[in-house]
Amino acid sequence: MNETPENVVPLVMTVPAIPMSLNAWSRTWQKRHRQTDDWKWLMLNAFGMQRRQWVYLHGVWFKGPVHVRFKFSVAGKKRMDLDNLVPKCAIDGMKDLVFSDDNIDVLRSIVLDGERLTAGRSYTTVMVSPAR
């Protein structure tokens, strides 16, 4: 595998889920904790084994500041407010793997996009690129 941050820009990952709605997120600590654990595993799987091995040898994928874009592809007819889909768990799942921290010096912007699917299952596409 010749993938390195220099020749794979931006880094695109697909996760077979969408984050919990802020309405549910704010209700119980137990749900938040479980969601955080689930998304850490989802992000590890989306990142891939070979990339994880590269990170183990070289450190985080992107050394400098990054921009992150989330595209939530939502199946079904249930009403879904884009501003209620909080990607905090996904961002925490990428820390120390894709980028070093989620503070404002490293994570420069977060963009949320949404689309309605007419068939299939909901998923999230995450695109991380270096901030220039």
| Strand order in space, largest sheet | 1-4-2-3
CATH superfamily: Holliday junction resolvase RusA
Q: Could you describe the largest sheet, including whether it forms a barrel?
A: 4 strands, mixed
SSE-based structural type: alpha+beta
Percent range for β-strand residues: 25-35%
Number of helices: 4
The CATH class designation is Alpha Beta
Shape: globular
Rg computed from alpha carbons, rounded to a whole number of angstroms: 15 Å
Calculate the terminal CA-CA distance, rounded to whole Å.
26 Å
Within the CATH hierarchy, at the fold level, what is the topology? 60s Ribosomal Protein L30, Chain: A
Q: Helices and strands, in N-to-C order? A: EHHHEHEE
Number of strands: 4
- Assigned CATH architecture: 2-Layer Sandwich
Low-confidence stretches: none
Query: How many domains make up the coordinates?
Result: 1
User: Helical content, roughly?
Assistant: 25-40%
Mean pLDDT: 88
Question: Can you tag this structure with a few keywords?
Answer:
60s Ribosomal Protein L30, Chain: A; 132 residues; 4 strands
Description of the structure:
- It contains 4 helices and 4 strands.
- It has 132 residues and is an alpha+beta fold.
- It has one domain: Holliday junction resolvase RusA (60s Ribosomal Protein L30, Chain: A).
- It has a 4-stranded mixed β-sheet with strand order 1-4-2-3, with helices on one face.
- The longest helix is centred in the N-terminal third of the chain and has 19 residues.
- It starts with 10 loop residues before the first strand and ends with a strand.
- The model has no long low-confidence stretch (mean pLDDT 88).
